[in-house]
Write a structure and sequence with these properties.
CATH class: Alpha Beta
CATH architecture: 3-Layer(aba) Sandwich
CATH topology: Rossmann fold
Distance between the termini: 15 Å
Shape: globular
Number of helices: 8
Number of domains: 1
Mean pLDDT: 89
Largest sheet: 7 strands, mixed
Length: 242
């Protein structure tokens, strides 16, 4: 079944079209990686899906319901949760308080603080510490946990490895393994091609707001993705059949 579908989606920053007529869908339980260089439109796309950036044209549907004109808090109630680039923590609030904010959407589900700690055990001793005093990895775990507390059907992860050391990145991704096999639909923005292709079912490479390559990870080579990433196959959009 399709969890998310977008049709000819366009989003702008002033006169600049950051997302240009994108069309794709994501199946329930699928992990989709969005890759591309800085300025490709990946973050704008995630923010548009979450309702944090306005839609200029096209449509967004969740489980077949059109959510294009819904506000961000209404989309959370429909099951979309965004972990933004840079984490956006409430630094003066504790880990537990940040996590509880995620539950305010009121969606029913199985996510709880105890389950979050099960995925991110490093947070157990930090629950009552202010997030402004945490390490980058702990803040990222808190940001992901806060999103999960809304019991999302679709989790949008924007640059979860940004600003983290390789060791901490490994720990964060190791913690995400269980999440990626739990049935949650995930759209992951990641600039590290190797890491993205290691965890995703499917990849879309974006360039200047458009999808220039799309396919299942097991049907694409790193060379194909690299060429698309750097715009070496600009003459046509390549789509590998599912």
């Amino acid at each position: 079944m399709t969890a998310l579908s977008i049709e000819t989606l366009t989003a702008r920053h002033g006169l600049l079209e950051a997302v240009r007529g994108l069309t794709f869908s994501v199946a329930k339980g699928e992990t989709l990686a969005l890759v591309g260089a800085n300025g490709a439109g990946k973050t704008t796309l995630l923010r548009t899906l979450a309702g944090a950036h306005p839609v200029h044209g096209g449509s967004i549907a969740v489980n077949g319901e059109d959510v294009t004109r819904l506000a961000s808090h209404q989309r959370v109630r429909r099951g979309i949760a965004l972990v933004p680039e840079g984490r956006k923590m409430f630094a003066t609030m504790t880990v537990a308080e940040n996590l509880k904010l995620g539950a305010m959407a009121g969606r029913k589900g199985e996510w709880s603080i105890e389950r979050i700690i099960g995925i991110f055990p490093n947070l157990e001793k930090r629950l009552h510490h202010k997030t402004g005093h945490l390490s980058g990895g702990e803040q990222q775990a808190t940001a992901i946990g806060r999103a999960l507390m809304s019991n999302p059907e679709i989790l949008l992860l924007d640059e979860v490895s940004l600003g983290l050391s390789p060791l901490i990145i490994d720990r964060v991704y190791a913690s995400l393994d269980g999440l990626m096999t739990s049935g949650t639909t995930i759209i992951l923005v990641e600039q590290d091609l190797s890491r993205a292709m290691a965890v995703a079912d499917r990849v879309i490479c974006m360039l200047e707001g458009k999808a220039v390559l799309e396919g299942r990870v097991d049907e694409l080579t790193r060379e194909q993705v690299t060429e698309a990433y750097f715009g070496l196959n600009r003459t046509r959009t390549e789509k590998v059949p599912a």
